[in-house]
Amino acid sequence: MKTLTFMKSLFRPLTSGKLTSSLKARLYLLVTICSIIPLVLIGGLSVWSISSILDNKIDKGMQSHLQQVTNSLSNTLSYLDYSSQQFTINGLIGKDLAALLEMNDLTDSLALRTDMQNNINLLNFTNPTVGLTMFYDTKKEEVLFSNLLADDFDFADLPVLTRTNGANYYGPHKTNYRYNDENMVFSISRKFDIAATSPLTSGIIIYVETNFKLFEGIMSPTQYGMAAFHLLTDPEGKIVYSQNPALFPDGSVYADRSANQYRIFEETDHHGWRLIVYVDQKDYEQEYVKWRYSFILVICISLLVSFLIAVTIRNYVYKPLLNMKNGINLVAANKLHKKLPRSGLAEFDYIIEQFNGMNTKIRELIAELEHEGQVKRETEVAKLMAQINPHFLYNTLNTVQWLARMKGQTDIDHFIASFTKVLSYNLAKDGIIVTVREEIEVLKEYIMLQQVRYDYQYDVRLDIDERTLDDAVPRFLLQPLVENSLYHGVGDSGGSIEVIVRHADDKLMIVVRDNGSGMDESKIQQLLTGSVKSSGLGIGLNYVDKTIKSHYGPRGSLRIESVKGAGTTIELLLPICKKEEERG
What we know:
- This protein is α+β, with helices and mostly antiparallel strands.
- The chain has helices spanning 2-15, 23-86, 92-102, 106-126, 212-219, 281-284, 286-332, 346-386, 390-407, 410-426, 436-453, 478-490, 521-529, 541-552, 579-583, and strands spanning 130-137, 142-146, 160-164, 167-174, 184-191, 204-210, 228-233, 239-242, 262-268, 274-280, 433-435, 458-464, 472-474, 495-504, 507-514, 557-563, 567-575.
- A hairpin with a 5-residue loop joins strand 7 and strand 8.
């Protein structure tokens, strides 16, 4: 339940709409969440596992080990009991002592003493737990026999661990061996002759100690692998031995006073004495503390790795996106000459290549539009250059026309009227888009003027499809083509010019063909570039070519075919549209 609540709290910012829309922030948040969730799950499992180990396995291990120590101590006391039985009057060594006490012959007593020593050595060899052994006469207060040199001592000063089967067991105390009285031992004492059949044996006490190393092996505080100390109590709860006398003095009654600071384990022997182990709580929880610090270190390392992964993902994902964003801003600011660098990732590099290609196309389109605009401006300038004071020309021609009409010069009157119409149409400023019908009407007036000039030496045939009459075309398109055939084709020698206007393959086709002298390729290029000065208004094929490119771009075309001595054909292919569409 707690884990579910934690998961909801983690994802609440993502579902509540409060999170920033920044991709970078979301990357950092999601990577952090993906790192924390496994840590929380593993951490929770680890806490449960560590607690289980501490509460079960370590406790059981400690209790089991304490039980082994208790059994070892109980076995040691059993060995002492067995060894002491050999020193009683009925024992192997005790019989020799009884005989020695009643013997007066020195020679025989020496031999018997030798036998006793051999038997004691045999006992020590077969039972390595035994150390100091002695027979003590309480009446004379002296040691009768001892395998090692012993100091004087009082049995009443020894801490009694328990009493059973006529023997007194003494808890850990300093050995009575004269030359090593700092070592701790367990010991036992019992009467030599329980029945006291002889006054010589009635006051003799048997005393047996363990060896020095046995105590260290049983009661060592380091055997648990943690800071610990032992307490040994008799059946009444009196402390007979304490490894922490400051907290539990020897001789005091045991009472648990440090449960918060220590973990306590105890085991009771069947004779009633207890062995208690106090383990320092901090040392006991050392593994948990180590794990906790290790887990904190793992969390820190994981968060650091998550941060590095987030930065790496940012470099892989966010940085290319930011780069493309900057590129879009540059395009918006009309800075189209900077290309986006490759990111090294195939997916982003594909987008970047497409973006750079789009950027290049935009630059090309802008350059093309600028070029078309330049061509259009040049065309308008060329047309304006042809408008030589039109009001003055109109007024002058009107004056000449009225004079001719007053003098009865009808031909001159008609000629001036036609010229005025052509000039007015060509120099008009009310729009560059007209219909084919308007172009044809003005072309007829222009042809009439030129026929008068050339005394009708050439013939012009018009083949106009009526379906094309309402199609929209740029103003002043047909006249320069006919003018070119007239000046550079038939000329003064005469000939024929054919003008064809029709639809062909969804295009408006305009053909002007003559049977004149023809031109070579260099002459055609000169006419298209405007390097050859035209007659008439001074506007020729160069104007037509620029007008088509300005209005139609690649959708319109101008093609010239000419053969020397056979004539010239000029063909225009234009998109079909109406005048209203062109204006719209």
